[in-house]
Amino acid sequence: MPKLWSETVAAHRDAVREAVLDAAAALVAARGPAGVTMSQIAKDSGIGRATLYKYFADVDAILRAWHERQIDAHLERLNEIRDRTEGAAPRLEAVLAGYAAAVSHRAHHDTEPAAELHRGEHVAAAHRRLHAFVRELIADAAADGAVRRDVPADELAGYCLHALAAAGALRDEAAVQRLVRTTLSGLQADR
């Protein structure tokens, strides 16, 4: 098969997949995960049902793929925050604040069916990536002397992620910011 043909087929498959996931996202936003059907996704994406079933076995498979895309987008936003922030300590603070804001936002938009999506292996894998990401930021800040060194960066990353999970119960942005500051105070190096 010529390279151009395979690239065109791959691009088409990607476009179909993205159209399906975009339609699913709109339906989840409008109706919640329980209101998503294969028929409605096919209609809203402009893809025939037979074609839809070639890509996804059922609604659950679509919702998992949509959720994976959401998680990847959140992790990418944290990467962008890291990349546009100068200095190890400010970078760590900015990423932790971004993470806490995402946790708070997600908690206020989750329904029970949506919460089910947070229990899959894809979420566990994403959490491991997030933990490693935060651990690296902490190690960088510790190397600069801005973060304590008496506790391993791996343990401090766990501390941060667990502490900031409390942002899910906070409705006020100022409260989320206070939580971030409190979490950061536990990381401070002895002067």
Layout of helices and strands, plus pairs?
Layout: H1 3-31, H2 38-45, H3 49-55, H4 59-84, H5 88-107, H6 112-117, H7 121-143, H8 153-164, H9 173-185
The proportion of residues in beta strands is under 5%
From the helix content, strand content and strand pairing, which structural class follows?
mainly alpha
N/C terminus separation: 65 Å
CATH architecture of the largest domain: Orthogonal Bundle
Please tell me how large the radius of gyration is: 20 Å
Report the count of strand segments. Answer: 0
Query: What is the tally of helical segments?
Result: 9
Mean pLDDT rating: 88
Shape estimate = elongated
Low-confidence stretches: 108-113
CATH superfamily of the largest domain: Tetracycline Repressor, domain 2
Tell me the helix content. Answer: over 70%
Instruction: Summarize the main sheet.
Output: none
Helix-strand sequence:
HHHHHHHHH
Indicate the CATH class of the largest domain.
Answer: Mainly Alpha
| Whole-number total of structural domains | 2
The CATH topology label of the largest domain is Tetracycline Repressor, domain 2
